[in-house]
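Q: Convert this sequence to structure tokens.
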Amino acid sequence: MKLESRPRELHPEGLAIAIVAARFNEPIVEQLIEGAMTTWQRLGGLPESIELHHVPGAFELPLACEALAATGSYSAIVALGCVIRGDTAHFDYVAGEAARGIMNAGLATGVPVIFGVLTVENRAQAEERADPSRMNKGGEAIEAAIEMATLLRGLDAGSEG
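A:
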């Protein structure tokens, strides 16, 4: 059997997305939000089909994501934040628990919850990954949300027959 890779076709029609953004490292996260919103609109997503919610920091993302996913109002949730390594173990706890919690939120609810949290060594790396004119990870997170929501919607439709 030959496996073929095919290009992704991303269509946000009929999807509702929530973005949960951390306020900590706000200038970086604002760029991630800008990239996410720009990508959503470029792909044809309607402004009224995407909502933005804020939490204090990356550690608070999982609870907000799970609560929003549990409402049943969203096709996918995107968690955006930035954790920059410092001189203490704080980075390891925050980044690790945010990642685990975000994954668990999706598994617990069956709603795709996308990890769009930068976990970087320094501010320069964060700026590179957040810059909307470069490799903006906010835009990539929206693309992942659309792809996963579309996949799960297709699986649900296939099981209704």
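The longest strand covers residues 76-84.
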